[in-house]
Task: structure prediction
Amino acid sequence: MREYETAPQYELVISNESLVRFAELIGLSHSEKRRKLQELLARYRRRPNAELFVATVESVVPDGVEEVYDVSVPGINAFDANGLLVHNCGEEPLYEYEVCNLGSVNLHAFVKRVNGRAVVDWEALAETVRTAYRFLDNVIDVNNYPLREIDEMAHRTRRVGLGIMGLADMLYALRIPYNSEEGFETMQRVMEFVAWHAYMDSERRVRERGQYALS
Result:
């Protein structure tokens, strides 16, 4: 027999109660596979066993110390990595000497139960977005910057980045499949809601503190 190279193959096993949750919340887009999954679930005479998700650690054995390198080349911000020219990563293009000022709102924290049904607490979410925006704006003034140029640029543009986390957890709590039209519509509504309230509080902030020049 001859040896030959092949890509690694992985097998995803979904069983027990997770199989029911998978069918309810995610499902299969392939019609034939979807039909087989429904037939399989219909044959169960009782509900599948609950998942425990518990792993037991038998032992922890020291295996030495591995060296980790942090390469930084001032100026070009690039270096040779095994024959490849690589650059330091960046998540967003900014002006020279600008810095990130980031915060996240945990969407899952705003799912509440009303009459036994999970719903979004829109009023609490709006208040948190406004508070988070003002917090990030205040950070600009109280922060200690390593360079005078960074200090000046941060106050000049007053850029903040208010994002979200816990989106999948929120949809799960609402019993909305992530990859569904209802899921997409919910995502769009939530992001429009967060953005609108952040913009509105930014406008109120201008009336309180005055406008900052961008040029």
Summary: The chain has a mean pLDDT of 88. The longest helix spans residues 181-209. Residues 182 and 199 are 26 Å apart (CA to CA). Strands lie at 78-81, 84-87, 102-106, 111-114, 117-120, 161-165.
